[in-house]
């Protein structure tokens, strides 16, 4: 080797080896999922068509589908499917907005301050494991049977996961990032706004995903209380009259919406935090 | 007085029996590139954290240009071993982050970011995502971020420690060029002996248990490279090899004596 070979242009740098963002193969999983659902539907149809189980216990899929059309156009219990759905969606959206407004700052406080952690952490950990149905009567005694009680119940179910996830995210912020911002002159407020919250965003979004899941499953409980509209109410009242196809329909709609919410939030997470899972 | 002066600082970490740093004094005058070299546990990171203001000394003081250091501040720019960039910002916004914190208007800070990116040979990468860049490029973004804030001294915490040998040598050249072009004082810590000898105008050799400075050397290899002498010529210069071997011998001599001591305790 001669000197020319060794003199590798001192100030010239090779163009970056750009790391290709990696995506796991998703097609195979999707195909499997579709196959599973299709098999279950076929099985359902076969079992009900064979007459082994009376329609009172398991209505055939086509009856449920017909009921979907009927409730969507004419309604059930004085409201169409869309009105039931809208009532439920409004409750959960209100609860989610309120929970995010309060739980995120509370989570940040718990993550940053020992005092806030000492005061708030036991409170959250105390009520979090209680099933919403257990404290529902108390909420009704305090706040009556109006919309407030229903939204409050869902709100409480969503609040804890978001607050806990936010606190975890805040505590997990890379200390080097904090120091880097400090040595660029960041004030405490700027540190929270520009470093801590964006760093915790992936965890906050995970908290929202989990919270929305628990919130949605609390919905039926919330709508047990003197509701006249809502998917949970629809299922409940249909069950009282043994209208099994409406019960099944309601359950399916609740499930489909929960699934759609989950997929939507995952997409949002990929969009908002594309660096997650990348080596950074 | 226009210098960075570390005056007899001592640090003891809570729960630790020994001192992390014992009576360490150091001066980083203008135009200098001071390198602290030592094995892990010698207190070099503690020393850098003290100067950066991330920790406070139990005794002694740190003064920058006549003002006591009492916390982190923008006049002391820090480059971290693992870049510590913000992945939600693109390259230019990362570089301009310090200016944004200061309230510099967007147009002005973008112009400044592009200017500094050109300085570190990253023009054309302003809009890239930092997590799409290689380790060496990310480290240059970190360097650009510190420089864009126009600090009075640049503190570098094993900045090339995580890079492979080839990129590391390029980064050393880049640092020396920036050092000459910007005239910034630099305080850098490393455990790489060759890197320390090559870069330093003043090399302080540190030793653990308690962390202290055991030798100071005035060197000029970095200046020579900044003035245009090729890396290989310098690193194969007998004078360079002699200093490198001397430092190596010092480090190992100290290790051996420590081993003797611990054996003595056992016996």
TrEMBL record, chain A:
Keyword Cell membrane attached:
yes
UniProt subcellular location: Cell membrane
What's a single GO BP term from this record? Answer: cellular response to sulfur starvation
Q: Describe its membrane topology.
A: Multi-pass membrane protein
PROSITE patterns in the cross-refs = ABC_TM1
Q: Which UniProt keywords apply?
A: Cell membrane, Membrane, Transmembrane, Transmembrane helix, Transport
What's the name of the protein? Taurine ABC transporter permease TauC
Species this protein is from:
Chitiniphilus eburneus
UniProtKB/TrEMBL annotation, chain B:
User: Which UniProt keywords are given for this protein, alphabetically ordered?
Assistant: ATP-binding, Cell inner membrane, Cell membrane, Membrane, Nucleotide-binding, Translocase, Transport
Give start and end of each ABC transporter domain.
6-233
Name the domain of life this protein comes from: Bacteria
| Matches recorded under SMART domains | AAA (SM00382)
Extract one GO molecular function annotation from the record.
ATP binding
Q: Which CDD domains match?
A: ABC_NrtD_SsuB_transporters
Keyword field contains Glycoprotein: no
The family annotation for this protein states:
Belongs to the ABC transporter superfamily.
Q: What is this protein called?
A: Taurine ABC transporter ATP-binding subunit
Organism of origin: Chitiniphilus eburneus
């Amino acid at each position: 080797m001669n000197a020319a070979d060794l003199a590798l242009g001192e100030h010239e740098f090779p163009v970056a080896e750009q790391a290709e963002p990696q995506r796991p193969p998703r097609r195979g999983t999707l195909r499997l999922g579709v196959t599973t659902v299709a098999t279950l539907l076929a099985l359902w149809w076969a079992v009900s068509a064979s007459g082994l189980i009376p329609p009172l216990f398991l209505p055939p899929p086509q009856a449920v589908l017909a009921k979907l059309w009927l409730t969507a156009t004419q309604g059930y219990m004085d409201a169409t499917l869309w009105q039931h759905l809208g009532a439920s969606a409004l409750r959960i959206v209100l609860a989610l907005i309120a929970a995010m407004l309060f739980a995120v700052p509370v989570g940040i406080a718990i993550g940053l301050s020992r005092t806030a952690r000492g005061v708030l952490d036991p409170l959250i950990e105390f009520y979090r494991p209680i099933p919403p149905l257990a404290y529902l009567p108390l909420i009704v005694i305090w706040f009556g049977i109006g919309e407030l009680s229903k939204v409050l119940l869902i709100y409480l179910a969503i609040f804890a996961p978001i607050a806990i996830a936010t606190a975890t995210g805040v505590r997990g912020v890379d200390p080097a990032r904090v120091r880097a911002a400090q040595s660029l002159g960041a004030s405490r407020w700027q540190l929270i706004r520009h470093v801590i919250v964006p760093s915790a965003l992936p965890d906050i979004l995970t908290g929202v995903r989990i919270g929305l899941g628990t919130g949605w499953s609390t919905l039926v409980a919330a709508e047990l209380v003197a509701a006249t509209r809502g998917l949970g109410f629809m299922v409940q009242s249909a069950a009282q009259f043994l209208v099994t196809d409406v019960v099944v329909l309601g359950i399916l709609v609740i499930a489909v919406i929960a699934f759609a919410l989950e997929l939507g939030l995952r997409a949002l997470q990929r969009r908002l935090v594309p660096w997650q899972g990348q080596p950074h | 007085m226009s210098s960075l002066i570390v005056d007899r600082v001592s640090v003891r970490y809570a729960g630790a029996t020994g001192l992390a740093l014992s009576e360490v004094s150091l001066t980083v005058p203008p135009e200098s590139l001071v390198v602290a070299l030592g094995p892990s546990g010698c207190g070099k990171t503690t020393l850098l954290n003290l100067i950066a203001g991330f920790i406070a000394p139990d005794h002694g003081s740190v003064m920058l240009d006549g003002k006591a250091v009492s916390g982190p501040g923008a006049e002391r720019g820090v480059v971290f071993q693992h870049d510590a960039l913000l992945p939600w910002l693109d390259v230019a916004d990362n570089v301009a982050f310090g200016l944004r914190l200061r309230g510099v208007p967007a147009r002005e800070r973008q112009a400044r970011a592009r200017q500094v990116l050109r300085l570190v040979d990253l023009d054309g990468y302003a809009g890239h995502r930092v997590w799409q860049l290689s380790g060496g490029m990310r480290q240059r973004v970190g360097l650009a971020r510190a420089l864009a804030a126009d600090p009075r001294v640049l503190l570098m915490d094993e900045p090339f420690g995580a890079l492979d040998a080839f990129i590391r040598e390029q980064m050393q050249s880049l640092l020396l060029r920036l050092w000459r072009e910007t005239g910034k004082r630099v305080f850098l810590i490393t455990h790489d002996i060759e890197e320390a000898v090559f870069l330093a105008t003043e090399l302080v050799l540190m030793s653990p248990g308690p962390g202290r400075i055991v030798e100071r050397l005035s060197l000029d290899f970095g200046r020579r490279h900044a003035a245009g002498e090729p890396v290989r010529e310098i690193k194969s210069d007998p004078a360079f090899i002699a200093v490198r071997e001397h430092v190596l011998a010092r480090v190992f001599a100290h290790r051996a004596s420590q081993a003797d001591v611990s054996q003595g305790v056992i016996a």
